[in-house]
């Protein structure tokens, strides 16, 4: 099942998820804005942040687990799955990612076609271009059932340019 716009799907449009997304806030021709930013513009510069997906002894993690960004900055996440399992990288608010995780418990075969998510087979690489337009603390997580619980999450801190100094 290809799944677009899971929040709309939560409202009951599961089987029509693709159409629901078209009728959503992104339908006017400009990119859909999320609480944590928007899909990146490939014609604009981006800072590369490499993130590796790893498995340990009963644990799973992202390396690094903390990414700091200046508000307005565009980041090209270069993702590499160094594990033996499939993993995904989903940017969101903590709240959205937990809701989304619950959906995935119910529909483990759910696949994403959202601009804020990438799913990678073992030993594969991928990219995700994202512009962080809002200051705040956000998250990247793997929402495959059991993975977040095993530790597969990281924090994204987006600071206003005025707040990047040392002053308190
Ligand atoms: Cu995972």
Question: Count of DSSP E strands?
Answer: 13
Widest sheet, order of strands: 2-3-11-7-4-5
The main sheet comes to: 6 strands, mixed
State the helix count: 3
Secondary-structure element order, N to C = EHHEEEEEEEHEEEEE
Morphology: globular
Which secondary-structure class do the elements indicate? alpha+beta
Heteromolecules bound: copper (II) ion
**Relative helix content:** 10-25%
Full CATH superfamily name: Cupredoxins -  blue copper proteins
- Oligomerization state of this entry? single chain
CATH class (first level) name: Mainly Beta
The CATH level-2 architecture is identified as Sandwich
How is the CATH topology named? Immunoglobulin-like
* Domain unit count: 1
Strand content is 35-45%
Low-confidence stretches are 5-28
Describe it:
30% of the residues are buried. The N and C termini lie far apart (48 Å). A hairpin with a 4-residue loop joins strand 4 and strand 5. The protein has 168 residues and is an alpha+beta fold. The longest helix has 13 residues, at 94-106. The chain has one domain (8-24, 33-163): Immunoglobulin-like (Sandwich), CATH 2.60.40. The protein has helices at 6-13, 17-22, 94-106, and strands spanning 2-3, 33-34, 37-39, 47-55, 60-63, 66-70, 74-81, 87-92, 111-112, 117-120, 125-131, 136-141, 153-159. It is built from three helices and 13 strands; from the N terminus they run βααβββββββαβββββ. It is 16% helix and 39% strand. It has a six-stranded mixed sheet, with no helix packed on it. A five-stranded mixed sheet has the order 6-13-12-8-10, covered by helices on one side. A two-stranded parallel sheet has the order 1-9. Copper (II) ion (CU) binds at residues 60, 87, 142, 144, 147, 152.
């Amino acid at each position: 099942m290809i799944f677009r716009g899971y929040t709309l799907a939560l409202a009951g449009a599961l089987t029509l998820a693709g159409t629901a997304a078209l009728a959503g806030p992104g339908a006017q021709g400009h990119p859909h804005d999320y609480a944590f930013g928007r899909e990146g513009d490939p014609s604009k510069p981006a800072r590369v942040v490499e993130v590796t997906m790893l498995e340990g002894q009963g644990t799973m993690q992202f390396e690094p687990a903390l990414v700091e960004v200046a508000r307005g900055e565009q980041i090209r996440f270069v993702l590499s799955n160094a594990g033996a399992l499939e993993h995904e990288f989903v940017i969101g608010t903590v709240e959205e990612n937990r809701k989304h995780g619950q959906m995935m418990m119910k529909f483990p075969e759910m696949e994403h076609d959202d601009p804020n998510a990438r799913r990678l087979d073992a030993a594969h690489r991928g990219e995700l271009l994202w512009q962080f337009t809002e200051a705040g603390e956000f998250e990247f997580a793997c929402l495959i059932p059991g993975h977040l619980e095993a530790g597969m999450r990281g924090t994204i801190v987006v600071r206003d340019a005025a707040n990047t100094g040392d002053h308190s």
